[in-house]
Fold this sequence. Notes:
A: mainly alpha, 2 strands, B: alpha/beta, Rossmann fold, four-stranded parallel β-sheet, 14 helices, 43% helix
Amino acid sequence: MQTFVAQVISGLSTGGIYASIALALVLIYQSTGLVNFAQGEMAMFTTYMAWSMLNAGWGYWPAFVGACLFAFALGFGLERLVIRPLETAPELALVIVTIGLLTIFNSVAGWIYTYTIKPFPSPFPAAPIKVGFMVLNPQDLGVVGVTLLMLALIYLFFHSTRLGLAMRAVVENPVSSRLVGIRVSWMLALGWGMAAVVGAVAGLMVAPLVFLEPNMMGGVLIYAFASATLGGFSSAGGAVVGGFVMGILENLTGTYITLVGTKLKLTVALAVIVLVLLIKPTGLFGRAAVRRV
Amino acid sequence: MGKANARKTVPAAGWAVMLAIVLAVAPAWAAQDEGVSATEVKIGSLEPYSGSASSYGAVGIAMGAYFKKINGEGGVNGRKINYITYDSAYSPPRMVEMARRLVEQDHVLAIVGSIGTPVNTAIWKYMNDRKVPQLFVTTGATKWGDPKGHPWTIGWMPTYQSEGRVYARYILDHIPDAKIGILYQNDDYGKDYVVGFKDGLGEKGRKLIVREQTYETSDPTIDSQIVNLKNSGANVFFNVTIPKYASQAIKKAYEIGWHPVHFLNNVSNSVKIVLEPAGLEASKGLITTEFVIDPADPRYQNEPGFKEYMAVMREYDPQGDPYDQFNVWGYTVAQLFIRTLKQCGKDVSRANLMRQAANLHDLRLPLLIPGIVINTSPTDFYPIKQLHLAKFDGKRWVLFGKLYDTSKMHR
Lengths: 293, 411
């Protein structure tokens, strides 16, 4: 029982990591209709920016805000400079561009900051909280809390602001949106910028747990994809739930199913992707894309 | 060697004198292997100067620094060392490409001291097919000691298996009520350690293991594994992880209040790269093994061999950090090569280089822990077989216990 509870708690905290990157993936999908493979590496890179600012003597919160602003500029700029020229290109070209960005960010970070791990400060207290036999790490709780907070903000933005509505309209029907006066291409750039900010926050939350290094997000991205697929790429809430489910599922199968053990944990994530796509391609909470023909 | 023998066996008869001349000259022709001239010996090394393992690149640069010092003193037997080093990027395909360039275009005599198990594995067969020495590879994999199957390859560091045996021996001797939990990377490196460890524990001791956990390098965290090890009731933790996961394991175990006797493989015993990120307080009491000295250890500061190392680093590798263990490795492997080359005498050929690499006796090098000596034979391709235990006191590793000779432990 003790092991079970401990594994569920540990699963929730790794699930929080997956959920936060899954949220960024889903956000960019919702606002641009594109899957961004470089999302994790962009988050890693902006976390390095925060690290540089901290090293230059900034406080934690100024560096936090600075990294978010940098992330927004990065996402926005990338859309304008790299993605926009390919507006009419097939989707596959865009996928390849984002994979290219993935390797570029990874190598540039390694080139500038080297590949040795760096400790990253946490805004939460360090002392573990003991509840009965359970030990809770404040940083883990923080990741979960911040992820849920971001989810709430995103929901509010998309459903209660004019800008959010406009962004949703652009993805739904760019031509009509343009006709009613929405600046479609700016909306897309805005989507990139916002997703990058969500990624930056995720990176800042994850780095104290896994240490900062250029490959910090490599494994996370695969689990984040599994989470987003499970929850549904068209549902932000679904992606977050998917993240937590993945974290717990991974720990429990690794602990209790001898056949899986710790050796096939990653395989579980990949199996989830395949199964969901076979059985319910829209994910647990996603809506099927309906198009009038 | 061939010359002397030939002369001894020749009778005084005139025809035999002719034969003697032929015999005497023949080894001289044989000695004209590629990469050797009257004035230089050309050798290569392939190190990761870029990519994820680029911190290991220090090995290749420190080697070069030592060769510059040797050249400044006139070289070895009148021959200077022409040292060519390329980037392996820690990538097996690139390693093959660069090894072919060294062998087929640069015509080196040997490739020396290249770091990394996967990349050296990639050129293992090639080097042996071409009969070009793959000397003193800088990795702890056990497979490099295979004089029958791969006579042109030899390692130099203590193997992962022998290190595993040392921890096992210590546990059997000092922790009678041990309940052991193991965490290891699910690949050749991790398994090598566990094989040696279990072997060292023996049939009975193996029952002391209560839980084994693995991880993949794609795992973002190893929290789940540490939780399982803690809940298995283990009071001894054998931690076979690379730096990033070693830091995570130390930190996580400390956070969840698990305080086992913690053995950390020496792959990850860098204070700067592993223990500082994990937290020095959390690292207190860790046990590891060492075979090269810690340059920051005050007791070596006045040793002439150590002072020479510092001077060489200052003069020929001023950008390198002399306190970085990888520089100590590179310097030591370069010294090992020079000693082997000196031992070759006049016959500097690929065959003799291998013969002498397998003919080292009680060789002492200044940066090895006092008491450690290098020994090889035609059937023993494991130059360093001794290890010393060290415990972390919150600031640095402090040697304790005795020097373990793993060649005397059963295999």
